[in-house]
Specification:
Four copies of one chain form a homotetramer. The first copy, chain A, is α/β, with parallel strands linked by helices. Chain A is about 45% helix and about 10% strand. The longest helix of chain A is centred in the first third of the chain and has 21 residues. Chains B and C meet through loops of B and loops of C. Chains A, B, C, D: It comes from Streptomyces agglomeratus.
C-alpha cells in the first residue's frame, strides 16, 4: 500500500505553513563573553518589523512577528495598536507576546518564584501587563519563560517556589481572554545552575493541567538535557492536546540558539514528522523561531532558518504513511526505517522552489535577499541611535 | 531561630527507616560484555532470602525483599505463600513484585507496546499474574518497568505505542486490590536506543494521573539524562502526591547500577533532604535498592548501600530547618547553602553506630558481616546447581 | 571559484572506497537484558564469511572482514591460512585482528592493567598470539580495545594502571612485523563505570606517540561523551598522522552500536568531510564497521550501513572546496555553511546507483539482497549447532 | 599496613597549600541574560587587591592574585610594578597573567585562529604584551584561554585553524623567559558552539608537547563534556609531567562557574586525591580559582571556595595509602573503596580550624569576615566610578 500524499496536497500544506519570527533575533545578541554588534541592526520595534517584512517577502512563510516586552515596549496601549498597523501595512501581523521577568535587578533571586513577595508582585504585574498588550495587539499567545531558579543547593525551597509559581500562573490564567492562550516554556538550565523552576516538559505540563485548556506547553528545541528525544515529547504533547508550539533553534551543546536545523537537520525532520503524524500542522500549534545570530548576518540567517523548517516539513510530508504503517505492523524494522529515511534523503529544494514560484516568490530566497540590496541599505541608513539587543 | 531536630527525634526516624533489597542483587549480574560469576551466589529464591536475612541482621534496616518474576518464580500460588513464610521465619517480609516482560523472545519489539496484539496479550497476562502473586505474598507494590521502545526512527509508531501502553496499564490497574499500588518506572534509554516508551517522569506521571490514586511514579536514580536534577523531580512528585518510591543505585555515566551513594553521595543527600522536606519518610514511599554488583562481593555491597542510604538520611535529618528557612527568606544565598552543607559535612557514622547499638546491633555492620563467616560458608555450601542471575 | 570535483573523480573515489565489515556483526548480539537470537545466524567463521560475501557482492564495497579472537578462533595457524583461502575464494580478504581480553573470568578487574601480574601476563600472551594470527592471515592491523577500568573510586591505582598498560603495549609493539600496525581504541565508559583505562583519544594518542609510527588511534564513533565533536578529533588525528581508522556505528545515547549513519547522518557526513579534507581516503586509515544488530536482520543491516557510509562519503566528495575556501577566507559564515549544506542536501542515491551499475552491480543493493533468497536459505540450512554471538 | 600520614605531616601540607584567587571574581559577572551588579564591587585593580587581601587574611591560604589583561590593565610597565608593590604591602603577590583575546570586535571569528591574518597578528601582539607584563609583575605563569572556534559546520577550516594556533603558540613560547611558563587551557564549548579550537586536554597536550617543557596544560574543572572523569585526566597529566595547574570551580550543567566544591564535593576530593597521589602538591602546579559569583556575595564566596579546596585536600591527605594499596593489590574492591570513602566521610573542619589557629588565624574564616565589617565598609566607600566586571 502506497499512501504518499500526492504532490499537490504536500504543496498545499507547505503553502499554508506559517513560521513566526522573533523580533529579538533581528537585534544584537551574544554570549556572556561578548556581544558582537552588527552594522545595520534595528534600533526600534518598527525597524525590526521592516526587517521581518523582508524575511516574509522572500519566503512567503513568515507572516507574524513575536514581540518581547519590554524590548519592544511602546509607550502606551495606543502605541501597540499603531505598531500592529505598521506591521499590517508591511504584510505582517504581530504574534506572541513574550514576557521578560529576568532583567531587572530585583529578579536576581527569581521573579514569580522569588522569596520576596514584593518582587513576586512586581513580576506578576508585568505578566498581567503583557495580557493588556495582547489585547492591544490582537495576539493570541502569551509566552512565558521564567529564568527563575537557584544556583546552590539550599539556596531556596524548591517546593515553595512551585507553590509561588502555581499561584502566579493561576492569576494570569484568569486574566486571559476567551481566545487567548498561555504557553509555558521549560528549560533545563541557564541562567540558573542548580535548579530551574520549570526545567522540563513534565513540570510545564503539570502546571498546564491544573490551569485549564488555554494553558499549553511550548517546546524550545534547545532546552533539553543531552540525549533527550524531543520528538517523543512532541508526540506525547500532541496526544495530550497540550502542544502549544515551538521555539525552534538548534544546538550542539547547551542552549546554543543556532539556526533551526543547522546542528541536527535529521532531528528537525523527526520532530516535524511527529508533528505531521499527530495533526500538529492544523492543531493551532505555533511554529516560532527563537535563536541568536551571534556571528552571522541576522536577516539571511532568519531566512535560512525559515527555509530549514520548510525543508524538514516537506520531507515529513513526503513520508509514505501507508508503507510505513505496513512495515511497522509487520515488525520489519529495516523496512520501516527505510521508508522514513527515503523521505529524509530526498532533496526537497526543487519542490520548495516550485511552491515559491507558484506563489509568485523568487524560488531562491537567499539569492533574492542578496540581490535586494537591503543589507547595504540598512547599514547605510541605520546610523546613530541605540541598536536593539537583549538589554534594550 | 534554630530548629535542628533533637537527636532523639533523628534517631527515631533512622530507627524506623526501612530499605528494601532486591532479590536479584544477590545473584549474578554483568554487562553485555560479560557476567563474572561469583562463588557462593544463591541458586534459589530461598537462598536469596538467606542472604537478605544477613543484610537485615547486620543493618536492622532491610526488613523486606523485592521479588522479580519470573526470576523468583515459584511453581504455584502455594509456593509464594511458603516463600513468604520462609521469609518471616528469617525476620523478613516479601516486598514489591517486579514484573519482567523483556526476556522472552517474543518481546524483541516490545511487550505491552508491541505492534503484535498477541504479544501484548501475553505481556498483559504476565502483569496480571504478578497481581495474583501479590495476593499470595501480601505485597503492596507492583513495580512496572517496561523495556519497550524502538531502536530506529520509524521503527514503530511512537503515539500508537502510548495508546497500547495506556490500555494495558488500565487493565492491570483495574485488577489491583484495595491496598495494592502500581509503581511505574521510567528510564531514558537501554535496552532501547531510539525511544523508550516511558523515558521520563513526565510520561510516567501522565499515565498515573489517568489511572488513579493507586498509580504512582518510581524514581530509579540511574535512569535520567546527564545533568537532570533528580531531587527536583522528587520534590515535585511529593508535592503532587505521586512519589511511589525509589530504586536507589548510583552512576557516573548511564545506568551504571553501582552501589547507592557510591558515585555521588552529595546527590543522594540532596535527594534525601527533599524526601525529608516533603514528608516522604512517612508518605508510604518505598525505599528500594536496584543495583548490580558486577565486580564486588554482593552481600557486603548491599550492606554498604543500605548504610549509604542511612548516612544520607541522617545528614538530611540534621539540616537545621529553621536556620535554613530564615536564610532562604532573607535571600542570603551563602548562608542558606552553608546550613545545608553543614549537615552534609557532618560525620554521621558515630550517630548511626549509636542507633545500631541502641537497637542491639553491632555498630559496624561491615565488620560484623566479615566476622560472621557467612561469605565463606556460602562458598563452601552452595556447590552445584545453577546460580541465580538475570537470566535465571 | 568553483572547484567541485568533477563527477568522474567523485565516482572514482567512491569506486575504490573499501569498508571492512566485522565478523561479529553477523552473529547474535544484544544488551545486558537479553540477546534475541535470530534464525539463520552463522555458526562458524566460514558461515560468517559466506554472509560477508553477500554484503560485498551486493555493494562492491566490503571486500575485507575483521576477525575477533577468540570468537573466530581456528584450531591452528594452518586453520587461519585455510580461512584466508576460504575468504579469497569468495572474493574477500581477512582484515583486522581484534583481540578479546574481556571475557575470561580472570579479567574481572582488568586484563593488561589488572593488579595481578599473572592475569596481565595471560592477557599479554593473548595479544601476542593475535600477532601470530596476523602473520597467518596476512592482516595489517591489530585492533586493541581494552575493557579495563574500575567501577569504584579507590578500586585501583589509576596511574599504576597506565604504567601496566604502557608496558604491555610496548611488548606487543615490539612483536609487530614491518607492515603491521597497532590500532588503539578508546572508549568513555562501559563495561567499566568509574574509569576506563583508555577513555579518550588523548590517552590513546599519548600511548601511540611513545610507541612509534606503527601505533595509531582508532575512532569508534559511539565511544565519546555527549556533545563531543568527533569530526574535530578526526581532523586533529589526521593532522598528526595518527588516524588509524574508524569503527563506524551510530548512537543516540551511549554506545548504542546502531547502524552507521542511522542516528545522525549529518554527523557522519561531517566526519567524512574531514576525512576527505585531511587526505584520509588515501592515508591508509581503515574504514570499519563495528555495530550490533539487536532487533533488525543482520545482513541487510550491514548492507544498509555500508550504503550509509558511501552516501556520506559521496556528499563529502561533492563539497565545492573552492567556494568553501573562498567563503571561509572572507569570513562569510552563512555562505561557507551553505556550501557545506548544499552538498549534504544533495540526494546522492542516483549517483551511487550509477557507480554500482558501472561496476556491474545491481543499483539497489537492498532490493537485490531481498530478491536473492539468501535470507531464507540460511534460515533453512543453518539448523542445529551453536549460533555465533559475543560469547562464542 | 597502616600508612595514614601522621597529623603533623597533614597539617604541614595544609599549611603550605596556596590557592590563587582571580581578580575578576571580585568584580561583577553574570550570564548572557543579565549581570546583576552588587554594591561594593571594586572599581580598580587596587580595590580588587584590597578584597583579595581580606580573603588571604581570613584563610591564610590565598597569597596570590591572578590578573586579567586588559581588565586589570595598568597604563604602563611601571604601573604593573606599582601594582605588585601595592600587593606586597597587603601581604599578596601577583600571580598568573590571563590573556584576553575575545572581547574586541575584531575577534568575532576568532583571535589567533582567525582567518584574517591582521586579526591574528593583533591577538599575537596582545599575547606578547602579556609576557611583557609578566616581566613587570614577576609572574611565572601565562594562562592562555582561547574563545576561538566556530558556530556552524563549514564556517572555517578546522585544520587550518590548528595550524594558525600552533604558529601563534610557538611565537609566544619563544618569548618566554627562563622561569616563565605557558599554561594552555581547554574548553569543550562556549562561546563557540560547533567547534572550539582547544576543546579538550588532548588538544592542549598535543600542542604542549610540540612547544616544550615550559608549556603545560591547565585543567578548568567546568570545561568538560558531561560524564568526563576529570581526576583521570589529572592523574594522566601528572604522569606525563604536563599538569600546569587548575582553574577550580564547579558545575551542574555546563561551565556554571559556581564555587569550587559546591556542586560535587566528592569530585573535588577525588581530584585532590589524584593530586596528592601524583605528587601534584609539590610539582609546581598552580591551584587557581576561576569562578563567577552571579547571585552570591563575592568575597565570602571566594573564602568559601578556598575553604572547600582546603577541605578536599585535607581529606585527600588523610587517605590511608598503605591500606589502600593493600586492598588494591588484593583486588578487594569494597575494601579499597572503603579506605577512600573513610577519608571522605571524615569531618575535617576541626582539623582545619586547628591549622588556622596554629597559624594565628581565626578558626572560622566566614564568621571572622562577617564580623570584620568589610562588607559594609566597601558598600559605603565604593560609591561612584565604574564597577569592575568582565567588560571593564
Amino acid at each position: 500500500m502506497t499512501t504518499r500524499p500526492d504532490i499537490s496536497t504536500v504543496k498545499a500544506a507547505l503553502r499554508t505553513q506559517a513560521i513566526e519570527t522573533p523580533s529579538w533575533a533581528y537585534g544584537n545578541s551574544g554570549t556572556r563573553f561578548k556581544v558582537f554588534a552588527q552594522p545595520g541592526v534595528p534600533r526600534t520595534p518598527r525597524e525590526k518589523l521592516d526587517d521581518a517584512a523582508r524575511v516574509h517577502q522572500h519566503t512567503g512563510a513568515a507572516p507574524t512577528v513575536a514581540l518581547h516586552i519590554p524590548w519592544d515596549k511602546c509607550g502606551s496601549s495606543g502605541g501597540y495598536t499603531e505598531l500592529a498597523t505598521y506591521a499590517e501595512e508591511r504584510g505582517l501581523r504581530l504574534g506572541a507576546i513574550n514576557s521578560n521577568v529576568f532583567q531587572d535587578d530585583d529578579y536576581k533571586l527569581g521573579s514569580v518564584c522569588n522569596p520576596d513577595p514584593a518582587v513576586r508582585r512586581k513580576a506578576l504585574d508585568h505578566l498581567l501587563e503583557c495580557v493588556d498588550i495582547m489585547d492591544a495587539t490582537g495576539s493570541r499567545d502569551l509566552k512565558l519563560w521564567f529564568s527563575d531558579g537557584t544556583n546552590y543547593p539550599g539556596q531556596d525551597d524548591i517546593r515553595a517556589r512551585q507553590d509561588r509559581l502555581g499561584e502566579a500562573l493561576a492569576t494570569v490564567y484568569e486574566r486571559l481572554g476567551d481566545h487567548q492562550r498561555m504557553l509555558i516554556e521549560y528549560k533545563l538550565f541557564e541562567p540558573a545552575f542548580y535548579t530551574m523552576d520549570v526545567p522540563d516538559w513534565g513540570t510545564a505540563y503539570a502546571h498546564c493541567l491544573k490551569l485549564g485548556e488555554k494553558a499549553q506547553v511550548v517546546v524550545d528545541t534547545g532546552h533539553h538535557a543531552p540525549g533527550t528525544n524531543i520528538e517523543f515529547i512532541v508526540s506525547l504533547l500532541l496526544r495530550e492536546g497540550k502542544l502549544g508550539g515551538f521555539d525552534f533553534n538548534s544546538r550542539f551543546y547547551a542552549d546554543d540558539d543556532l539556526m533551526a536545523g543547522a546542528a541536527d537537520p535529521f532531528q528537525l525532520f523527526r520532530i516535524m514528522y511527529e508533528v505531521v503524524r499527530g495533526g500538529g500542522l492544523d492543531s493551532g500549534a505555533a511554529f516560532m523561531l527563537d535563536q541568536c545570530h551571534n556571528v552571522e548576518a541576522k536577516i539571511p540567517a532568519i531566512i535560512r532558518s525559515v527555509m530549514n523548517v520548510q525543508e524538514a516539513t516537506a520531507k515529513a510530508l513526503l513520508v509514505d504513511a501507508g508503507a510505513l504503517g505496513e512495515a511497522q505492523a509487520a515488525g520489519d524494522v529495516l523496512a520501516a526505517n527505510a521508508v522514513l529515511m527515503d523521505a529524509y534523503s530526498t532533496d526537497v529544494r526543487p519542490l520548495l522552489a516550485e511552491v515559491r514560484e507558484e506563489a509568485g516568490i523568487d524560488p531562491d530566497p537567499m539569492a533574492a535577499y542578496r540581490r535586494s540590496g537591503w543589507a547595504q541599505k540598512i547599514v547605510d541608513e541605520r546610523v546613530g541611535g541605540t541598536q536593539s539587543g537583549w538589554g534594550a
